[in-house]
Amino acid sequence: MSHGRADREFGLRGETRYAGENTATGIVMIPDGTAAPGQAEARPSVGLIARTIFRVVASVAALLTLYYVLPLDNCSFPAALTMLLVGLVGFTALVAVQVHWIVESPFPRLRAVEALATSVPFFLLLFASTYVVLAGLYADSFGEPLTHTDGLYFTVTVFSTVGFGDITAHSQAARVLVTVQMVADLVVLGLAVKVIAGAVERGRTGRSR
């Protein structure tokens, strides 16, 4: 059997890939669709991108569904605070696991996008839940009662530093909680993103050796 017949193409996005050299890019490929050591990162297939998008959408939808069905107005503040603290620990663990997956992934950049797209909503919903509980227990906590949607809206405005001013924290407990979120936002935007970006670089470097 000739080498041309033996080195069957491995298609990603309809491009011709050989077990030898990709004639379009000059990148030496191996049969699993990834770049050989010392070569640039291969591009993920359309199917892999579609599956990643599906996982992200499904994860965010599940988190939102859980947020809206939880009876937060019947929850005590100590229980909500405990849930927030446990959730933040879980968020840290989630980022750590995602970093490991990014480093080990043949497509670290795609995995990093998935990590951010699932971790950030989880983080925001933790604070939104706590705001809704606090507003339900103490009517003077905010300028108006908070529904689940109001709580999520307020959390996103704090996270994005927009602060329209239509919902404001009035009580000391609410202001402390908002301050905690602002500090946590800086950690998420700064440290977590930097860690994930570093994991992408380590993943790419590791596969180029």
List keywords for this structure.
0% strand, mainly alpha, disordered N terminus, transmembrane helix, Helix Hairpins, 2 domains, 209 residues, single chain, K_chnl_dom, membrane, elongated
> What's the Cα radius of gyration?
23 Å
| Count of extended strands | 0
**How many H/I helices?**
6
CATH top level of the largest domain? Mainly Alpha
Order of helices and strands: HHHHHH
Unreliable segments (pLDDT under 50, ≥5 consecutive)?
Answer: 2-39
Strand content: under 5%
Domain Potassium channel: 123-200
Keywords: Membrane, Transmembrane, Transmembrane helix
Transmembrane segments: 52-70, 76-103, 115-139, 176-200
Protein name: Metal transporter
